[in-house]
TrEMBL record:
Gene Ontology annotations of biological process type: nucleotide metabolic process; purine nucleoside triphosphate catabolic process
Record-annotated active site: D87
Cofactor field: Mg(2+)
Positions in coiled-coil regions: none
Cofactor: binding comment: Binds 1 Mg(2+) ion per subunit.
Pfam family, any one: Ham1p_like
Molecular function, one GO term: ITP diphosphatase activity
Family: Belongs to the HAM1 NTPase family.
UniProt xrefs under InterPro entries: dITP/XTP_pyrophosphatase, ITPase-like_fam, RdgB/HAM1
Protein name: dITP/XTP pyrophosphatase
Residues engaged in binding Mg(2+): E58, D87
Gene that specifies this protein: rdgB
Reaction catalyzed: dITP + H2O = dIMP + diphosphate + H(+); XTP + H2O = XMP + diphosphate + H(+); ITP + H2O = IMP + diphosphate + H(+)
Record: residues binding substrate: T26, H27, N28, A29, G30, K31, S88, F174, G175, Y176, D177, K197, H202, R203
Length: 215
């Protein structure tokens, strides 16, 4: 049970509980919903960054883990509570891993408003421009970081591989879900039941590693 989750007491390291209250350091409602669903079997009280009026830090890192750590660190420092952050994105083989850590930024206009239909059109347009031989393979990546107020931090990364499809299909999920079909499935992440996404997603994969290490 994550409620009693303790960091491994190795070599005299202090044993530290994650709960009972955990700040979810995201301003993305879709992510927050998925993280709550993934944590619900563990009986942790989750409080969203927006509920605490925490600011959205600038994502200056060069990797998913760098950005997850800076978001978790800032939320733990400001709230005085353990904080979990998620940095994630879509990595497209034909685009040499882009949009990657820029997945949210590809959806933003000059005023910072997000439009994922436009971002998906850009991805598909660039995939087509890369030529048929470049293929349509892609994967989602999710880095999860838990930061404690005393300065310690743990990070985990998960992935799910699949194929991009066009046109986008489905109303569920968020972000790039309508154009992503996981390997072994026929429907996009926006068409399948949320429980099916939670069984195989990059976020679920990262959570499995987090629970294995800390649970
Ligand atoms: O930084 P926070 O506040 O957590 O929220 P964000 O939306 O800005 O999140 P990121 O910086 O991690 O950007 C990742 C983007 O990648 C996309 N993404 C991540 N996970 C996804 C998923 O499960 N399905 C579809 N798109 C996803 C989605 O569009 C996100 O906005
Ligand atoms: Mg972000």
């Amino acid at each position: 049970m994550l409620r009693h989750l303790c960091r491994a007491a190795q070599g005299g390291r202090q044993v530290k509980a994650i709960g009972p209250k955990l700040v979810i350091a995201t301003h993305n409602a879709g992510k927050l919903r998925e993280i709550r669903e993934l944590l619900s079997p563990h009986g942790i009280e989750c409080v969203g960054a927006a509920e605490l009026d925490l600011p959205e830090p600038e994502e200056t890192g060069n990797t998913f883990i760098d950005n997850a750590e800076l978001k978790a660190r800032e939320a733990a420092d400001l709230s005085g509570l353990p904080a979990l952050a998620d940095d994630s994105g879509l990595s497209v083989d034909a685009l040499h891993g882009m949009p990657g850590i820029f997945s949210a930024r590809w959806a933003e206009d000059a005023d910072g408003n997000r439009d994922f239909r436009r971002a998906m059109e850009r991805v598909w347009h660039e995939v087509e421009a890369a030529g048929e031989e470049a293929g349509h393979d892609a994967h989602f990546v999710c880095a999860l970081s838990v930061a404690w107020p005393d300065g310690s931090i743990e990070s985990f990364e998960g992935k799910v591989h699949g194929t991009l499809v066009w046109p986008p299909r489905g109303e569920r999920g968020f972000g790039y879900d309508p154009m992503f079909v996981a390997n072994g499935m026929d429907q996009t992440f926006a068409e399948i039941d949320p429980d099916q996404k939670h069984a195989i997603s990059h976020r679920a994969d990262a959570f499995k590693k987090l629970v294995a290490a800390l649970g």
